[in-house]
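Subject: for your reference before the review

Hello V.,

The reviewers asked for a structural picture of the protein, and I figured it would be easier to keep everything in one thread rather than splitting it across files. Below is the amino acid sequence we used in the manuscript, unchanged from the supplementary table.
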Amino acid sequence: MTSDEPDPQLPAQLTPEQDRPGPDRYTLLAWVELELALEAGVRVDAAHAVLGDAVVRAFGPGMFGWVAEALAAEGRDPRDLAVLLDDDALAGRVLAALHERMGADDEAPEPPDARLVWSAFSPDDPYGGRGAIRRAAHRRGESARRALLLPRRPRVAGRRER
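And here is what came back from the structure prediction:
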């Protein structure tokens, strides 16, 4: 198999770039849980190696020091990673600090774009689609009367007329 061919073990819709964990809260907390398990004496050597590599790919090689710096900046013990599991707000602030450091480091991947938002409207529409929704809401009564009073258009197979 060449490097251009897709891996048959990956789902068809994933590319090799998409199957990696991203620099998000879940990747950070998974790494924290694994570090705590390793400190507790649980045998997780293989999982630690795999997740350690994934974390470096997601956040960059400086991630481990950045977490300690972010915890110290918050006034917490840099070696106490368990606080990230207990305090969601702290985990969010540490993640934001990681994203800032990723943007400043040349060896780290690009941080996720914080300006992206979920929206029901097209980004190309200058009014955000709100005008079309407003017009449809104003015509709702007229559309309901028209649907009750006018007969349905006949359906003709293979042709669509408006």
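For the response letter, the relevant points are probably these. The chain is about 50% helix and 0% strand. The mean pLDDT is 80.

Happy to draft the paragraph if you're swamped.

O.
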